[in-house]
């Protein structure tokens, strides 16, 4: 079992290398299936295989300040001489060329051990446990509350599925809004993990009992989270048949992947493993049919007045492939609820205490509350997170911050490291699902104003500018499994070690990262982005249309 090194003792030749090594260890410490190097998202891997893992560790331990480690789909390729301002690690995960970017070809290469899927935060060592998307899910629910329920979800019923690496945050995010939330998962072990961590209140395998608990909480206006052991393809239609209509319905199973992710109804986990081995096509067919059944139920809930949304797992795309022509009547969460934030490059930013000390995060919480008192998004969230969100692995937080705010926070934290108020350096990363960092026409960039949804130049520019702006790790990711060809994204990490050089790196890399986010939406014609550019003095070259 891999656990992240704690404390202030260095094993590598500098904190940049040590910090990235601890992050690699941390994604496995928090991973869903660490023995197979799987971090989350059914197949999202930290390294290609164990020999790759050990070679990456060895390289990071021995890497000089003026060298860079090159990683291709989880396999270390070389250590090259670069310079002290170059990234410590650059990597490319799961990128396939145009017409070859298909699931069947990806799996063929995967079986030959030539490629891995890095997910968004697995392959580039940024995953911080289920809390990684918790504020995003919370903000979606809050946004629905404002749009459809007079600002509050008290007394409301949320239905979802999937309690894995990312989906596991749903019960807690739902509960924090004051609602009663029911989350269905076929894998009881995954439910038990979230129970142990405090991400969910209760579990049962009896639908009537679950609905009874939900109804009681709803009536009393109490918040509650319930996990139900079951298959969403069976449970959603069963709830519909009982004439019950939840207020909000979504799904965060690993529906993007029909071979390794979504479990078809009527099959045990062991049967799925056997089918995958012996009759993969039959498995894909069965999973697709179950998804179609579940999505039909979601559409029926929508017709009866429920607020429904796709939570970033490509479930609509799969359903459409399997015959549900109107699957895209379900809106995607980004377009429906989060785009106004992304237009100003406000997105999920993370900080991770490399010391392993929770008190380092508390110092940063305090700084944020004092520095951004008028920013409700971040200050409300930090207050909630402080009280309710448990740490997993190295203590960390995720909080939605925008252009200049992220740089300001990271620079202040770098000073706190320098002055000894934090016990070791802090790593900063952000989700790939960020304004300038992802082209995903079915999730992030769906229905952009100017129709530029599928243009992948932006995340590629993002990685290039991060590399030239001294980021410590830069990654270019694309799809894998069912996601193949659906997206292009970029990831960056910086280590705030308290040095003036780290301050310079933060200033350049984080500022340019969020600048590109604002510019991407300005280019697509969003007024809020143009306003942000004018307010913050970003040097935009605006041509006459
Ligand atoms: P995971 O593989 O760790 O967990 C998936 C869970 O779904 C498992 O617990 C599995 O048992 C359960 N499951 C599968 N089929 C089921 C079924 N038919 N009924 C009930 N439960 C079922 O995956 P994850 O990391 O939690 O990610 C889930 C999805 O969310 C992925 O598609 C991922 O790409 C997507 N995602 C979205 C965002 C976002 O920002 N919205 C962020 C990260 C991931």
Low-confidence stretches: none
Named once each, the bound ligands are: nicotinamide-adenine-dinucleotide
Please state the average pLDDT score: 96
Looking at CATH, which topology of the largest domain would you report?
Answer: Urocanase fold
Count of the domains: 2
Q: Specify the CATH class of the largest domain.
A: Alpha Beta
Outline the biggest β-sheet: 9 strands, mixed
Helix content: 40-55%
**What would you call the structural class?**
alpha/beta
Q: What is the architecture of the largest domain at the second tier of CATH?
A: 3-Layer(aba) Sandwich
End-to-end Cα distance, whole Å, is: 57 Å
CATH superfamily of the largest domain: Urocanase superfamily
Radius of gyration from CA coordinates: 22 Å
| Assembly of the depicted chains | single chain
Number of helices: 18
Summed up, what is this model?
The chain is about 40% helix and about 15% strand. The protein has 18 helices and 17 strands.
Written description of the protein model:
Helices cover 42% and strands 15% of the residues. The radius of gyration is 22 Å and the shape is globular. Helix 4 crosses helix 5 (170-176), helix 10 packs across helix 11 and helix 15 runs antiparallel to helix 17 (500-523). Strands 3, 4, 5, 12, 13, 14, 15, 16 and 17 form a 9-stranded mixed beta sheet that branches. Strands 8-9-7-6-10-11 form a 6-stranded parallel beta sheet, sandwiched between helices. It has helices spanning 15-29, 50-62, 103-111, 134-148, 170-176, 188-197, 207-220, 232-241, 269-278, 280-303, 315-321, 333-342, 358-371, 376-388, 405-418, 457-468, 500-523, 527-536, and strands at 38-40, 44-45, 67-72, 75-81, 89-93, 157-161, 180-185, 202-204, 224-229, 248-249, 307-308, 347-353, 396-401, 426-430, 438-439, 473-478, 488-496. The protein folds into 2 domains: 15-128 and 340-536, 3-Layer(aba) Sandwich (Urocanase fold), CATH 3.40.1770; 131-331, Rossmann fold. The protein has 545 residues and is an alpha/beta fold. The structure holds nicotinamide-adenine-dinucleotide. Residues 32, 40-42, 133, 136, 161-167, 184-187, 190, 231-233, 252-256, 261-263, 290, 311-313, 433 line the site of nicotinamide-adenine-dinucleotide (NAD). This is Urocanate hydratase. It catalyses: 4-imidazolone-5-propanoate = trans-urocanate + H2O. Residues 2-125 form the Urocanase N-terminal domain.
